[in-house]
Protein: Aldose 1-epimerase
Amino acid sequence: MAAIARGSITSTTWGSVNGQEIKKFTLRNEACQEVEVITYGAAVTNIRTPDRKGNIADVVLGFDNIEGYLSSNNPYFGATVGRVANRIGNATFVVDGQRYNVSKNTGENSLHGGIRGWSFKVWDATIQDNSVVMTLVSPDGDEGYPGSVTAIASFQLTNDGELRIEMKAQSKKATPINLTNHGYFNLAGHATNAAELYKHVITMNADRWTVTDSESIPTGEIRSVANSIMDLRNPTKLGNVIDKVPGGGYDSNFCLPESCNDGKVNFVAKVVHPSSRRRLEVYSNQPGVQLYTTNSAPENGIVGKDGAKYFRHAAFCLETQNYPDAVNHKNFPNSVLRSGDTYNHVVVYKFGVEN
Structure:
């Protein structure tokens, strides 16, 4: 094969789903970093980045083939999640006086867009300049949601290690929208599990969090993180706190300071793996971020890339987002997209090496 120039985007066929071709795109930069995305679920499948010695590892969980992503064992690895990420209580909401009932897929509630949300769809894709741009049309009534929505997810890898994901949506009718990318990260390498995850040091730019009930549905209370296990504003080793969190790990929406609710891209979090010195910084224009520490992996694990088994606490997620169930809480930021407006969500995952 001919050598591929650095700073390039290439594509290949990666199987099919119901007769629809799945494409995989590989983005490369001049810092020996690579990102791979597929058109099924607009999912990020691989992120390869060097450590302090130049050793390259894949730092996101995923599968080797499309069959893995189609399996019931797939916990949204790397996917673009919508039409509404996170949960909607009782799978119902009211917009402009009209009640809508959406599909229930976690008890009586709706999670991550329903039974066949956008993470289960095949997106169209093109290469535009230095980005992979994926498009999806969600019809009126899809999973019970009102309005035909056109969504765009674009992926760009810069030479300074930024994976920039921009998610946009326009609707023909008022509808709640809350997209996120559901990457599962372990900066020691995707196969290293809890032994290395516990060594990660996390800092979060979050002064409050949204309290939830036993089914992870927000009660409406927004509580200060001060003097609690939710206070991650100073560098915190995950292994020192993860087992002290009710439920056996983090799975909560953290709120950025109100000064960050300005529509601009703000600092969200920083995570460092001390021995490899790999660093991840997250920036976003969203008001919240879900920190999830893979608490619900099955006891016998999930077989992922290279035959690796992923177990409980194998990785962390930082899912930038609006607050969960915002459509049902007037004190949460607005989540209803109206005809003529554009939903715009930018998240930057910046990979590098800590000095």
Observations:
- Residues 8-353 form a domain with the Beta-galactosidase; Chain A, domain 5 fold (CATH 2.70.98.10).
